[in-house]
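Milestone 3.1: sequence recovery, worked example.
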């Protein structure tokens, strides 16, 4: 959402509340200051307001006079208000005091007696402890957040901040990557002290912060902050295992730093490729044999599945990333025959080819050495030409279907009448696909049916 799109909402809320009561807070204010300091363009993602000096009983009627308003967090005194088709949060200021471990138990107090400064102090970093008064636009900065933004610095107000909410350690790292800010020494020291507590953060929340980090121009900044802060050893020990593992003469970096360079080189707008870059050499530490890493792509596929499932990525994401890791060592031979190319496409899947080629390009860039030749580009052209010719790459592309095979097997007495199929049907279709991959001209119904009869005769059982 663009800043100008919120002006009407700002004005409506400010008019509905007493003068001096309304402030916008959160990432919106931080990004406004960043834009003013560094000229960074931004769109508003978080639309949060704080209304001071009011009780909930006083706030709700004023908001309901504007539009649909629902109290969604009575404990936190948060109201969702829908204006001009946009839903925003309006909350009373609150304080929070940790009473447990890992952001699980808090004593929360919200109300008219809580000051704006108290509310800002409970937030994660100084750069986020900013507010802007509405409607006059005065910046409220009691804790030096603007100075941190000008210094490109991430800093906590209190050393206990990470112990109170261990997720903040991951947030610090993803902010460092996305904003390209440095984490202050005091904050890094606090992170190292609290690092074991990151194990108490739910897998889903860890995943979400990693996804944000992987959207950065240089995710390596965030992963390095995680390593230096002791967080990586807990969240992704498989990645840290590559630190100091030397490679052959085709790489300038150890496995860990090559992985980070590959992630940085992968397209930032394609999460699947970024994840595949993160995991493509994940098995090298345990498959190292002198200068070689035999079968690291095969072992890496299983590690990728395990870790991504542990982090609660979707099944589709797990399958796509695992496939890219499994096949990232494909041979890019521009002289490869079409039969071999068709089989490669079949193994990878036409829908994954673009991402596989992007991963290879990132892998080459991540080597840290000059590019040697144009074999990959020429091979990609060959693959594109084969795809464009539209040969069959899956059972769905065959000119014969499962019903045809079922009918043939019933006629031969190999399936009972009325059967809907079984393993034998899938096995025959698979054999037919392999037959057609050798020669796409065989993909005609009559040829396939005749071959299906032959296959059934060759397998009496």
């Amino acid at each position: 959402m663009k800043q100008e799109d919120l002006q009407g909402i700002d004005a409506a809320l400010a008019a509905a509340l007493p003068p001096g009561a309304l402030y916008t807070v959160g990432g919106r204010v931080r990004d406004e200051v960043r834009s003013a300091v560094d000229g960074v363009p931004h769109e508003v993602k978080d639309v949060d307001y704080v209304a001071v000096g009011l009780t909930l009983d006083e706030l709700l009627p004023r908001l309901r006079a504007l539009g649909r308003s629902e109290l969604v967090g009575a404990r936190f005194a948060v109201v969702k208000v829908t204006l001009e088709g946009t839903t925003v949060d309006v909350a009373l200021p609150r304080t929070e005091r940790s009473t447990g471990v890992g952001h699980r138990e808090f004593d929360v107090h919200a109300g008219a007696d809580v000051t704006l400064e108290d509310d800002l102090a409970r937030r994660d970093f100084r750069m986020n402890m900013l507010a802007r008064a509405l409607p006059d636009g005065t910046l409220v900065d009691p804790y030096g957040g603007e100075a941190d933004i000008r210094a490109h610095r991430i800093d906590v107000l209190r050393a206990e901040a990470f112990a109170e909410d261990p997720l903040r350690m991951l947030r610090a790292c993803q902010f460092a990557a996305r904003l390209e800010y440095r984490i202050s020494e005091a904050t890094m020291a606090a992170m190292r002290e609290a690092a074991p507590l990151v194990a108490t953060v739910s897998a889903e929340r860890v995943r979400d912060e990693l996804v944000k980090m992987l959207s950065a121009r240089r995710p390596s900044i965030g992963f390095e902050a995680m390593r230096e802060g002791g967080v990586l050893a807990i969240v992704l020990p498989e990645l840290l295992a590559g630190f100091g593992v030397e490679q052959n003469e085709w790489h300038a970096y150890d496995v860990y730093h090559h992985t980070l360079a590959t992630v940085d080189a992968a397209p930032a707008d394609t999460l699947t490729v970024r994840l595949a870059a993160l995991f493509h050499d994940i098995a090298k530490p345990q498959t190292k044999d002198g200068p070689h890493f035999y079968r690291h792509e095969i072992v890496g596929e299983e590690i990728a599945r395990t870790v991504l499932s542990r982090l609660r990525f979707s099944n589709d994401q797990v399958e796509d990333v695992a496939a890219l890791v499994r096949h990232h060592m494909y041979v890019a031979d521009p002289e490869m025959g079409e039969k071999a190319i068709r089989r490669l496409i079949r193994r990878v899947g036409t829908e994954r080819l673009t991402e596989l080629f992007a991963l290879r390009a990132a892998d080459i860039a991540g080597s840290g050495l000059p590019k040697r030749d144009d074999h990959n580009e020429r091979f990609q052209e060959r693959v594109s030409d084969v795809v464009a010719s539209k040969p069959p790459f899956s059972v769905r592309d065959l000119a014969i279907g499962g019903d045809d095979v079922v009918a043939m097997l019933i006629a031969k007495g190999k399936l009972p009448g009325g059967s809907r199929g079984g393993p034998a049907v899938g096995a025959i279709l698979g054999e037919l696909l392999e037959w057609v991959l050798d020669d796409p001209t065989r993909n005609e119904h009559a040829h396939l049916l005749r071959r299906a009869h032959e296959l059934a005769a060759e397998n009496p059982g």
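The radius of gyration is 29 Å. The longest strand covers residues 78-83.
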